[in-house]
Write a structure and sequence with these properties.
- By secondary structure, the protein is mainly α.
- It is 63% helix and 3% strand.
- The chain has seven helices and two strands; from the N terminus they run ααββααααα.
- The protein has a two-stranded antiparallel ribbon.
- The longest helix has 23 residues.
């Protein structure tokens, strides 16, 4: 299956949303609520609607779905994982130099940069932090936590960027850590 943007991006959306939702004292709660309704309310954008084997929406309130490859995803599991990673992220955030965050904020503010360029810069920032921030966890988990901490920190500095930061982070995780995320569930 192609590692680009495909149906499984829904798992990353659940994970990142849950991570951000579990931010204490964050200034972007209004924007996050708006993002939630944009992402979850519309049936065409329902996290798992495109994943069911029969192609039909499930209307019984059950939020689990079956991917085309046969694996089952449970939204609640990824929400819980996002919440747990947010706790780890609270500790990791203290280790990140604010100049790095401020630079990334400026990258997201620059509307002349393409989505691909913004994602490349996020990737470069994560890679740089992997070399400078001591994290006692495996590489994939560290990259995942760093990407989401950066998203949360940038959105907290400038809440109006939340939508762009959210989508960039979801795409970054989907392209670089998709198999790792799926295996978390």
């Amino acid at each position: 299956m192609d590692q680009g943007l495909h149906g499984d991006v829904q798992v990353e959306r659940i994970l990142v949303y849950s991570f951000l939702k579990n931010c204490h004292n964050c200034d972007f709660s209004k924007e996050l609520d708006s993002l939630r309704s944009e992402v979850m309310v519309s049936p065409s954008k329902n996290f798992l609607s495109v994943e069911f084997d029969d192609g039909e929406l499930q209307t019984d309130g059950n939020r689990s779905g079956r991917f085309q490859n046969g694996s089952v995803v449970d939204e609640a599991v990824f929400q819980l994982i996002g919440a747990r990673l947010a706790e780890i992220g609270d500790q990791v955030a203290r280790e990140i130099d604010q100049r790095v965050v401020n630079d990334l904020v400026q990258q997201f503010v620059n509307e002349n940069l393409s989505k691909e360029e913004i994602m490349r810069r996020l990737s470069n920032t994560v890679e740089g932090l992997m070399r400078t921030v001591p994290l006692e966890m495996d590489q994939e988990k560290a990259m995942l936590v760093l990407a989401m901490v950066l998203a949360r920190t940038v959105a907290n500095k400038m809440p109006s960027l939340l939508n762009r930061v959210f989508n960039t982070t979801v795409n970054y995780i989907n392209q670089n850590l998709h198999n790792y995320v799926i295996n978390l569930g």
